[in-house]
Amino acid sequence: MAENSNKNIKERVLSFVKKEKRPDTEEGESRVLSRENILVFVFAYVVSISLWFAVNLNGIFNVTVQMPLEVGNIPDDMALTNQLPQYVEVNLSGTALPLINLYNNPPSIPIDVEDSEVNLFNQVRQQMNSFQEVDVSKVEPLLVAVNLEEKISKKVPIRFEWDIEFELRYGFISQPKITPDSIEVTGAVSQVNALTEWRIPETITLSEVRTDVDETIEITNTNPLLETLLESVQFTADVSEFTESEINVYIRTRDLPRGQSITYNPSSITIKYDVPLEQFSEIADQIPYAVYVPYQKIEEDETGFVTPDIELTATKYALKLRSFQPKAVAYFSVVDQ
Asked: What is the domain count for the chain?
């Protein structure tokens, strides 16, 4: 069976060389020679490549391989206090085939957490014992410190920034809410106790807002020494259209000593403010602001004019102070006899 197969291959090669033209003319001879030259060249090229690989694969090469570190089992009530490197850089020398295998499939280097300091050079050499044709020349880092502490959990508030631009005359009618507003963090005592809040680095950016806000914010954990179970929070806020309103409020004096009185000119301040449309009728008959001057400000003044303080008293409404006039008022002090 094998002889017949070889015979068929030989006949195909000869038919390729002698196809169509007999070598009884110059053209036929030239074509036969050309095909024979091609076959000789291909055969020589394959042989030369094979010889090159045979010679060079037995040479000595140097290569740097990144080998992953594999941390041993940590007790359930303990946690790492320092971040261990994910990889160790190992300089190896040896013949080509073993180095190629190691480069494509680097072995894991085990770390025993019971040791406070691990010599990675020794660990790598132990892993390389099965590769007799490979030598370890350098390991970086050479030593790794392993520190464990008691594991604890703690809840901290969640914080992040937002940049929201509203359409004209629109705005928040209540303080935005984060739900849930805190996150439980687990890790080593020193790591967890240092936390006062969990800050999300991303900023919520919205523009031309005119409806209520409801956004899902992903929780990102960039510290591998800490564990969290919360994956996302909801950022919500009520938005409304505002309209302008105006009111006159009399000026009062706070902390006025007994037996004294203060008269202002003018005696009232005109306040302009924005109010949500749905709250406009409800607040129409109220005085939502108080205007006052602390007596200490009068005592310290040398000009005869003071700037009143404006205080929002109707705090259940989402009012926004726009302006007040006048900015400063004259005052007169009267001492009772």
From this structure: 4
* Rama region for 169: left / alpha / beta (φ>0; ψ in -120 to 50; rest): left
For residues 115 and 120, give the distance between their C-alpha atoms in angstroms, rounded to a whole number.
Answer: 12
Sequence-ordered list of residues with C-beta below 8 angstroms from that of 97, at least 6 positions apart, any chain: 57
In the block, residue with structure tokens 């480069």: 103
Lowest-confidence range among 93-107, 194-208, 313-327? 93-107
Q: Is the whole model's pTM more than 0.70, yes or no? A: no
Structure tokens at 153: 């959990």
**Could you please report the per-residue DSSP string of 131-144?**
-TTEEEEEEESSEE
Sort 116 into a burial class: Cβ within 10 Å, 0-12 / 13-18 / 19+.
Answer: exposed
- If we measure between CA atoms, which residue out of 224, 222, 185, 191 comes closest to residue 85? 224
Does residue 92 contact residue 63 with C-beta atoms inside 8 Å? yes
CATH of the domain at 72: 2.170.120
Among 171, 237, 223, 167, CA closest to 195: 223
Same domain for 24 and 73: no
In this predicted structure, what is the pLDDT of residue 41? 65
pLDDT of amino acid 21: 47
- The SS3 of residue 260 is strand
- Asked if residue 159 and residue 141 are part of one domain, the reply reads no
Residue 266 Cα to chain centre, angstroms: 56
Per residue in 36-56, pLDDT tens? 667 766 766 666 665 555 555
Candidates 224, 247, 233; CA nearest to 321 is 247
Q: What CATH number is associated with residue 225?
A: 2.170.120.40
Average pLDDT over the chain, rounded to whole? 84
- 173 to 55, 137, 176, 210, 316: CA distances (angstroms): 80, 68, 9, 12, 10
The residue range of the domain holding 52 is 2-56
CA 182 to CA 205: how far, in whole Å?
Answer: 22
Report the alpha-carbon distance of residue 101 to residue 119 in Å, rounded. 24
Q: Kindly report the CATH number assigned to the domain that includes residue 303.
A: 2.170.120.30
